[in-house]
Amino acid sequence: MSLYLNIEAGEAVETSIQATGRNPDLAASLERNLILTTYREVLAAQGKFAPHLSLKVHNEIPLGMGCGSSAAALLAGVHLANHFGDLGWTPAQVMTEACLREGHPDNVAACALGGMTTSCQQGSEILTATCGLDLPWRLLLALPGASLATEKARALLPDSYSRADAVANIQRSSLLVAAFALNRPDLLHIAMRDRIHQPYRSEACPLLPRLLPLLAAADAPAGIWGAALSGAGPSVLLILDPEAPTGPVEECVRQAAEDSSLELVQTTISVPAEVTY
Ligand SMILES: Nc1ncnc2c1ncn2[C@@H]1O[C@H](COP(=O)(O)OP(=O)(O)OP(=O)(O)O)[C@@H](O)[C@H]1O
Ligand SMILES: N[C@@H](CCO)C(=O)O
């Protein structure tokens, strides 16, 4: 998604953070801030000195909503270490370090590469491919009032699945990649059906059972191509036809959500973020 964590950094006499955008309180603790702890930990592991930094941070990524905010913060911390510690790592090495720290590549790869990114981890190697760059599809993110920690969302999943569920999801996830790679939004309503995580996470993500039925509702406004949990939830991501008017869709989502603290964020499929040293 085209929601970014923007950081300007320079060496300084004292460490400081000036934060704007979402959750500026993240700047309150210089000891526990994930960007800074990552920066320091990476350099310590390499036996390097970590200069004090002055950071200007502008965050557009909702926290604890399944939008990958921690991946962006980890990637930023590793980039800072790479630059200010003169590590000489390639962008791929920076991304791999951030993926290993996050424990999976799902969000770090998307954040580092942009577009619709597929990724997997094989031992300590991260394999990625990006497709669906430059698709003009519109995204609408429905954010509930309460956040959900990824660990909790993961604990809701069963240990094993039936063969039928596994087969159905493998087919649909392959179809999903084809939909993005070939610009085939007509495939999305089938490709985004899930039997592996959404049924189990619904209880902790109340927007999902309210918004998924819009896909099949006869009276829903035109232009809703697909809907799914964003990451591990609790927010829901809708993929919309850019030609259809957004007003009626937003109104219908608000009514279906029955959540007075609902926030709707319009966005698009991202292009790679710029990192300049
Ligand atoms: N810009 C930031 N600066 C400092 N710390 C951050 C920043 N963004 C995220 N974090 C840290 O990451 C935590 C959120 O991580 P968590 O994995 O729970 O949610 P998420 O990454 O937003 O969602 P998901 O991984 O499901 O997409 C925050 O509580 C905070 O500690
Ligand atoms: N894809 C991961 C979430 C990534 O934060 C999951 O569903 O658990």
UniProtKB/TrEMBL annotation:
Gene3D superfamilies membership: 3.30.230.10, GHMP kinase, C-terminal domain
Domain GHMP kinase N-terminal, first and last residues per copy: 33-115
Entry's Gene Ontology molecular function annotations: ATP binding; homoserine kinase activity
Entry keywords, A to Z: Amino-acid biosynthesis, ATP-binding, Kinase, Nucleotide-binding, Threonine biosynthesis, Transferase
The keyword ATP-binding is annotated on this UniProt entry: yes
Entry's EC annotation: 2.7.1.39
Keyword Lyase recorded: no
Residue ranges of every copy of the GHMP kinase C-terminal domain listed in the record: 177-245
Record SUPFAM superfamilies: GHMP Kinase, C-terminal domain, Ribosomal protein S5 domain 2-like
One GO BP: threonine biosynthetic process
Any Pfam family: GHMP_kinases_C
Matching NCBIfam families: thrB
Protein name according to UniProt: Homoserine kinase
Native organism: Granulicella sibirica
